[in-house]
TrEMBL record:
Residues 219-379 form the Integrase catalytic domain. Residues 394-416 are annotated as: Disordered. InterPro entries: HTH-like_dom (IPR025948), Integrase_cat-core (IPR001584), RNaseH-like_sf (IPR012337), RNaseH_sf (IPR036397), Transpos_IS3 (IPR048020), Transposase_IS3/IS150/IS904 (IPR050900), Trp_repressor/repl_initiator (IPR010921). It comes from Massilia norwichensis. NCBIfam families: transpos_IS3 (NF033516). Signal peptide: none annotated. This is IS3 family transposase.
Length: 416
């Protein structure tokens, strides 16, 4: 049970000032109430009292004012008696509450001293001090976790192949005393995992079907031939958010995007539905093996539209390189520069950035044209993921396949 809000007592001169402001009639009652921080009803009451009692100022009757017969001591004892009766009534009504419930009444920022609060609540001070110390330690820990998340995010954006072990080395180099378990927890909460092959990285949901990768060595020659998606972490002043985007491989155009405060599948499905509604449907849709994209809700939409489903291979860092480059651009060109404080600010800022990214930002891989222009005319784009581990591709590379050499260079310099 929380302690009730204390009633404000306004001095007479304050009431007169507010009431006279209302009598002038220059401002509305609501404006006056907002200006002085009082309820509009009080403003009306004080105005009424001034108007009703104004005639008494000019009363011709003179003489001494009636004296209150009760002495100050009598008034004081009467007030003490009322307070004692109220305290006894509260103790009687709340006597059945447990100490844990009464301990929640204690507030460190309250005007009443902690010692008196504990005495009235009937609980030992030591238990309150322990709870306050634990809360303070947790607050400090949460603040340090926020700093660690920011450092991990920046380093992972530069080096997405870093796992928890390398992140521990990096953070210790920044004078943070952390162990691997803590870094693993933070990276797991942020949805980050090293892109290099390893045990239990990018683990799909055990009950979800994983589809094969269909784009290795396939030339993307037209818009809406291949779409792909991915999730990334966005740090805020207090907490963090997740961003999902869908990109057209041929033109690099961001077709749809959504943000969420949790890594659920619903906002990913909403993003997919939005892209399909405004841009038609692709021939192939590629994603990683995350549980959001292997879920029945997400793949069910693709099956309904007759879209071929492709998923990155384990440990294949280049299979979805275009979205990874998009995240790098978003963070270094917008998020890190502006330092968004809230979800609302992030929503407005990303809307402005993606409008710039699609319509005004030139891309080297597109001949310095914009994604909107290339997507609209269907000329000047293209993509090809070279399988560097495939023997056949290696032979073609040795034979001087210029198309694959151009594509490999394009992947390395895309969106620079």
């Amino acid at each position: 049970m929380s302690e009730g809000k204390k009633r404000r007592v306004h001095p007479a001169d304050f009431k007169a000032k507010v009431g006279l402001e209302a009598v002038r009639g220059v401002k509305t009652v609501t404006e006056i109430a907002q200006e002085y921080g009082v309820h509009p009803v009080l403003v009306g009451q004080w105005k009424k009292e001034i108007l009703e009692n104004a005639g008494a100022l000019f009363d011709v009757k003179r003489g001494p004012k009636p004296v209150d017969e009760s002495s100050p001591e009598d008034k004081l004892y009467s007030e003490i008696g009322k307070l004692k009766m109220q305290v006894d009534w509260l103790k009687k009504k709340l006597g059945g509450m447990s100490p844990a419930e009464r301990a929640r009444w204690i507030e460190q920022k309250d005007d009443m001293p902690l010692t008196l609060q504990c005495e009235l609540a009937g609980i030992p001070r030591s238990s309150v001090y322990r709870r306050l110390d634990a809360a303070l330690r947790q607050e400090c820990l949460d603040e340090e976790d926020g700093q660690l998340r920011a450092l991990i995010d920046e380093e992972y954006t530069q080096r997405p192949f870093y796992g928890s072990r390398r992140m521990v080395v990096f953070l210790r180099g920044r004078d943070y005393c952390v162990n691997r378990k803590r870094v693993q927890r933070l990276m797991r909460e942020m949805g980050l995992a090293g892109m290099a092959p390893g045990p239990a990285t990018s683990k799909p949901h055990p009950k979800h079907k994983v589809y094969p990768y269909l784009l290795r060595g396939v030339a993307v020659t037209r818009p809406n031939q291949v779409w792909s998606t991915d999730l990334t972490y966005i740090r805020l002043a207090r907490g963090f958010a997740y961003l999902v985007a869908i990109i057209d491989w041929y033109s690099r155009k961001v077709l749809a995007w959504r943000i969420s405060n949790s890594m659920d599948a619903s906002f990913c499905v909403d993003c997919l539905e939005d892209a399909l509604r405004h841009h038609g449907r692709p021939e192939v849709f590629n994603s990683d093996q995350g549980s959001q994209f292997t879920s029945d809700a997400f793949t069910g939409v693709l099956k309904r539209e007759g879209v071929a489903i492709s998923m990155d291979g384990r440990g294949r860092a280049l299979d979805n390189i275009f979205v990874e480059r998009l995240w790098r651009n978003v963070k270094y060109e917008d998020v890190y520069l502006k330092g968004y404080a809230s979800m609302a600010e992030l929503m407005v800022g990303l809307a402005q950035y993606f409008a710039f990214y699609n319509a005004a930002r030139p891309h080297q891989a597109l001949g310095y044209e914009t994604p909107d222009h290339v997507y609209r005319i269907g000329v000047g784009g293209g993509a090809l993921i070279v399988d560097k581990f495939d023997d056949a591709n290696q032979e073609r590379k040795k034979d001087g396949n210029t198309g694959q050499r151009r594509a490999a260079a394009e992947v390395e310099t895309d969106t620079a």
